[in-house]
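Entry:
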Amino acid sequence: MRLLHRFVSAALLCATTSFAVANDVRILPSATSGNASPPEVYLSGDITAGTVTQLAGLISGKGLQGSILYLDSAGGDPQAGMDLGSLIRRSNMNTAIGKPGTSPGHPTAGRCMSACVLTFAGGKFRYIDQAAQVGIHRFYRRTAMSTDLDVAQVMSAAITAYLIKMGVSPALFERMVQVGRGKMELLGHADAAKLNLVNNGVLPAEWGIEGKQGQVYLMGSQQTSNGTGKIIMTCAPGLRVKFSALYDGGDNNAFIIRNAKNYSLRINQQFLPVSTLLSQPTISGDYVLASFIPDENMLWSITGAERLGFGLHTKDSSTFFGFLIDATSERDLVRSWIKHCTER
């Protein structure tokens, strides 16, 4: 792998010439209140191997893990772009496109071109502003050589594997190679979302039938920037279904346990009141756990839901904690599991 890294780095240049100079990095206080909130980090300039070293030192020295990194770059070296993206993912950082604005949390429009797109893909959660520009193109060598085909094959494999690892569709690379030599294509925001280059703080939902300690259950989960939600449905005595909701509220878990007074089953945009829980909500590991037995009307609603979730409400009816999980493509699985539990 190290040999591959050297080969690719030495053999290929992107369309934008890169110089080994320090990047402009600005670290600003977070727009979110609270001393524990990580700062906002703004990085501009060409992306080179030196950029990776520079940001790595700042992450460890300034405690930037978990921060959001705003990028504004015309490109740089593609291998450095992937190395920087890998560093960002290891550091649990999120990415966006923009430049510092007049106040924290209000960046101005930026651009992310060429190798910057590979760096942007490294963010766990990846955001894009309406005015931001995303540019893709074919990476190529400025001077033709006899080994160009070999280089292209190695680079294709490296970029494709990197995109898959980052959770981005490899079809993005196919779009890159279709761009004419020396040209730059601005990627539409809708296309960026379809390719999962942009997720706007929501990772794909995961559904499946699992088993643990002799018990089989249906589980759905989805992670967002606001926390992770999980649903576990098990077969209960009397041909019923036990619905367990787990919500990772982070630092709010203890507050939720103390202050939640009412509960709801969330079906798409609806809140269906849950009058009785099987027991008081508890903290299980990193999650707030609440369980109940849905009635027949609720089960019917669950089988057709595009999004399923749970809400924990405080005395103030306008304040609640909870989650929704995308179930659009798994409605048949949910329906089949409920049928399995209720018709045994």
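The two ends are 53 Å apart (CA to CA).
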